[in-house]
Amino acid sequence: MDYRIDETTAIVAIGGELDHHSLRETSMAVNRIIDTYLPKTLVLDMGGVRFMDSSGLALVIGGSRKMSELNGRVIIRNVPPQPMKVLNAAGISRFVTIEHTGKVV
C-alpha cells in the first residue's frame, strides 16, 4: 500500500486482496494516515485490488466513519469489476463517492 498527501487530501493506493486476512493491517495503516494527517478527503484508489470480499467493506465503512468525525469525506477511485460488484451489492455509494475513470458514479 502506498499513499501520498496533497494539501488536505490523503490518497491511498490499495492493491492485492482485501479479505479477512489482509483487512487488519490495511485498516490500521489507513487509520494511521487519517490520524496523522487529518485530511478533509480520503481517496481510496483501488486500481490494484485483485479480489475483495465483504471484509473490504469494513475498510470503506470504517474509513467513512472516521472521516465523518473530521467532517471529511471518502472517495473510492479506479475500482475493478469484481470489487465493484461487492460495493454495489452493499449499496456503498450511499455513504461514499465512487469515481470510475474520472466519472462520479
Provide key terms for this protein:
alpha/beta; about 40% helix; Transcription Regulator spoIIAA
Q: Which structural class is indicated by helix and strand composition? A: alpha/beta
Reading off the top of the CATH hierarchy, the class is best stated as Alpha Beta
Number of E strands: 6
Overall structural domain count: 1
Largest sheet: 6 strands, mixed
Give the integer mean of the pLDDT values: 93
For the largest beta sheet, what order do the strands appear in spatially?
1-2-3-4-5-6
H and E order: EEHEHEHEE
The CATH architecture can be named as 2-Layer Sandwich
What is the end-to-end distance? 24 Å
Cα gyration radius (Å)? 12 Å
Considering DSSP H and I runs of 4 or more, what fraction of the residues is helical?
25-40%
Count of DSSP H/I helices: 3
How much of the residues is beta strand, in percent? 35-45%
In CATH, the topology is named Transcription Regulator spoIIAA
List low-pLDDT spans: none
CATH superfamily grouping: STAS domain
Shape: globular
